[in-house]
Amino acid sequence: MNVTITINGEQRVADVAGFESLLNVLRDDLDLPGTKDACEQGECGSCTVILDGEAVCSCLVMAADAEGSDVTTVEGLSSDGDLHPVQEAMLAAGAVQCGFCTPGIVVAGSHLLETNPHPSELEIREALSGNICRCTGYGAILRAFETLSEEGT
Amino acid sequence: MRMEFVAAQDLDEALAAKAQQPEAQLLAGGTDLMVGVNLANHRPSQVIALRRIDELRELTPGRIGSGVTWARLERDVHRGLAEAARTVGSPQIRAAGTIGGNVGTASPAGDGLPWIAAADAFIEVRSQARGTRVVPWREFFIGVKRTSLEPDEIITAVVVPEGVPVAQEFAKVGVRNAMVIATVSCLVMRGGDGFRIALGSVATTPMRATRAEEMLNAESTFTDATLEEVARVVAEEVRPITDHRSTEAYRRYAAGLLARRLVERSLR
User: Fold this and answer.
1) Which terminus of chain A is more exposed, N or C, with fewer CB under 10 A?
2) What's the mean pLDDT when you consider all of chain B?
3) Under DSSP, is residue A80 helix (H, G, I), strand (E, B) or coil?
């Protein structure tokens, strides 16, 4: 069946067999590999996208059920080669090591700042509690978002 | 084989589809169903998606639509349920997962189920052929991931009876704070009719610690010895198993401890 989804402001059509996840359709059919595929059970957050205004795990969204939805992926956060402020802050804080969790953290974190421009440390920790990073120990990631919170991006 | 997919726009459409295809898999937040698809090779041949149905997303103090997400329940008036909602998965999971999914999946570890048991809530279900049934929770949950829902029925709401105590406390034991499936969970309510103690992950279904409740409700003063007795009686009356998440002995100990702590908290 054909599924029409607005992705990063652009209407896209994918032919899905049925049960596959939005994550698989983004990566394999729509050439948007920024959203990462890791645990496939909603544990790690590396596949986080914004679906109709909510940050969700795209591995747990049945692609067929995304018909008519509005999706933002990490590719939609930067424009013309300019990084999103969250990406700039993470670079400046050294919050990236292997980088695999980074797109999910950028999407979840940018969603946090959109809904709450000055989050406390606790609110940052809570908002990113569904995103696992096995390299950094989270300290540098937290510092990146604390800087952004102070700036009130 | 290609899957048949119905994106139901309203409840009547969903009920008609379920009447026609009783084997169809219902899809709400996807947080259980898609794990089966991704990791257990689950290949549903028919899916009825419920997330577009406005009627299922209605939320009032007396009736919680089955399509209400944990993210909304976190901010709702029922304090114990809000506390339980806050412990579900992560923000991403809470934005998608629904209370109806929790009820329908009927995992012994379902985070919303101890509150339903303590509130003596009802599960409202509907079918095209027989209309609405309102089922007491004890009759709805009948085993591990087993309910009395008929194949042509859809869960429409959790109905909250009048007079649920306002004082509600929830706690859950697990290996970490975020993204954790309960090893043991407990919900205590305290009102005019006394204490209610409900537990999760310690039996095939959510359960009430009725002996501990009776014991407490016969007391007029609450000393350390009373609280110790609560812990002992709860540990005795739960019916946990040993599995990959914990042992029977630890679950008994933790159930008693949580009940004791929450009763103590509700006395403050």
Assistant:
1) N
2) 96
3) coil
Which residues on chain B are in Cβ contact (under 8 Å) with A19? 3, 37, 42-44, 47
Query: CB–CB of A65 and B44 under 8 A?
Result: no
Tens digit of pLDDT for each residue in B36-58? 999 999 999 999 999 999 999 99
The two three-digit tokens of residue B202, written as one number: 């310690």
Q: Which of B90, B99, B28 is nearest to B70 (CA)?
A: B99
3-state helix, strand and coil shares in percent for chain A, rounded to the nearest 5 = 40, 20, 45
Chain A residues within an 8 Å CB radius of B37: 19-21, 62
The residues spanned by each domain of chain B are: 167-267
To test the contact with chain B by mutation, choose from A60, A61, A110 the residue with the greatest count of B C-beta atoms within 10 A, namely A60
Query: What domains lie within chain A, and their CATH numbers?
Result: 2-76 (3.10.20.30), 85-151 (1.10.150.120)
Q: Return the residue of A nearest to B94 by Cα.
A: A56
List Cβ neighbours of B41 (8 Å cut-off, separation of 6 or more). none
What is the rounded distance in angstroms from the CA atom of residue B187 to the CA atom of residue B115? Answer: 6
Q: Evaluate whether B28 touches B66 at the Cβ level (below 8 Å).
A: yes
| Residue type (1 letter), B157 | A
pLDDT digits (tens, 9 = 90+) for B70-114: 999 999 999 999 999 999 999 999 999 999 999 999 999 999 999
What CATH number belongs to B167-267?
3.30.390.50
